Amino acid sequence: MTATCDLLLTNAIVLTMDETFTVHASSSVAIAGESIVAVGPDAQMYEAVETVDCRGRVVMPGLVNAHTHVPMALLRGLADDLRLDVWLMGYMMPVEREFVSPDFVRLGTRLGCAEMIRSGVTCFADMYYFEEAVAEATAAAGMRALCAQTVLRFPTPDAASYEDSLARARDFIERWRGHALIVPAPAPHAPYTCTPDILRSCAELAVEFDVPLHIHLSETELEVEESRRTHGMPVVPWVKKQGLFDAKVLAAHCVHVDDGEMRALKHANVGVAHNPTSNLKLGAGVAPVARMLELGLNVGIGTDGAASNNDLDMFEETRLAALLAKGVSGDPTALPARDALAMATRGGARAMHTDHLTGTLEAGKRADLIVVDLDRLHNVPAFRRDPNGIYAQIVYASKSTDVVDVMCNGRWLMRDRTLLTLDEAELREAARLEARRVDVFLSGREISVLQKLVAVGGAVEQESFEVQVKARVPSAEQVLAVIAGKAVTVIRSSHYHQYDTYWSFDDAEQGWLRYREDEFLDEAGKVTSARARLTLTGRTREEAFGAVLLSRSRYFAPAAHSVRFYREYFRPAAEHVVEKDRRRWLLVYRGVEFYLHLDRLLNPPSDGYFIEVKSRTWSRRDARDKAAVIAELLALFGTSPDDTISDGYVTLAAGGTGSLG
Ligand SMILES: [Zn+2]
Fold it and tell me: What is the CA(308)–ligand 1 centre distance, in A?
């Protein structure tokens, strides 16, 4: 008796990518509804409603993009050749805060899906905001996806707080669970952007609904160093300690993991997504994938978002994975083409914990497959002596443009290179319009240091006025004697090592930006704590009362990033560094509170001591009165105001707020 099916693909080279790498030369795949019912000789027993002749072509599983941020297709080429933190915190996140909405996400997803279908991808693992919009657009495009809702410890485009984003993730999972194409999941973004509580809550959520959990792990050396410093251990054992591995985890990157960590990942059945282009482009390094495969980990290949790649081409990614493994090990037998292609199909599906549905051509799996034309000029001739030759043809010579037909869940998404579920022309035009809006926003920001400061977060306008004076003093002893004496009352004192980096810009109107790092010292001169701040100050003095200056500080931000981050982000025209040993007192003299700094310049080195006296002020009259008291105080120290001390030395402290009446 002959069985019947809906569709029979015949005369194809069938790469099943199953456990034993079965290849059927000139054979068939039988499909009924959304599933594969038979492959190879078994399929030839079927009679079909429709038959497609695939002579000269390969039929293989659709590629699995194991890690991406699909809506970021809209941010492709937004900022390149920057270090990871500048790229992420300086460009991606500010633009996302401004533009990411359900409509943006829907458009970006459709653009990304169109590109992926064209290059033979049928399934991907996503992580983004408004994930329900990603899921809707993906399902409408007919693709399969693990859609993971991002949870972060700071506000995101779709949630004001972490509690909100967790509630959003729960709601999303509840509504999309059991969908034919979409597997919903929570995505705590990364250990360094989450709290232990977020990691735990996300793992509990994933366990509760029996869905996977998507996260970035050990992407950079810096991340691992910081984990060692703050938690006393590298990233993998730390997240394990937080209970993360109770869930079915898909971990992107895992670039900096040691053998013990790889074994821990294996033991917890954590799937790994290897993202070679993104890791190279952002200078993160190369993940030890050959070793991971040796240890039996489920490793897939991902493109990461289009903003860090800059395309979603899995053919390119698979080839790079194979070449890179050889290049870094000096061993051309590392990661052969066959294993690389297995990573891009079965391995990715396993890493995503969706291999019961997709990743191989086997009876019972969903019909997620592609037809690849091997008869292009760049791929002839072909040798059939070595059974692995076909894998080399696909991995080393085929291009994504050789994909002719794409089917997902039994539905054609592309036939003869024409997309069937998405309108390419419309997407191109809509994406161009969106890019113009982002360009306008960023251009506006780039012309102002203040706007750029606001864009990286935390900047507050903190206008404060103060009178201040600087002077050389003949000796530190005389100053210390006055402080110890009866004329002044000391409220508190501190001692620190101060590193100031001043940046100026081509446009002098932008003012000075100062990055200040204070290391507080105890009596023995040991560092007890440190802090860093950014201050943007105007160049102009408000007014001078003799040598006593009235100055105004403008904007103030905690410096959450390194000095190098800010240097690369702000791109100043000039930099100069001042390093000093500073003793600081808050004291009262004649009923007025003053800050007194006794400084010894270490860099640029200078003999002798300097003092700075300053007091906050609220009105011109108050400023004038305080200037007179300062002059008396200076006389006690045996000095007088000296306005010739260089500008770079002038430090304009930001205090409370106040307006000058
Ligand atoms: Zn990523």
Answer: 9
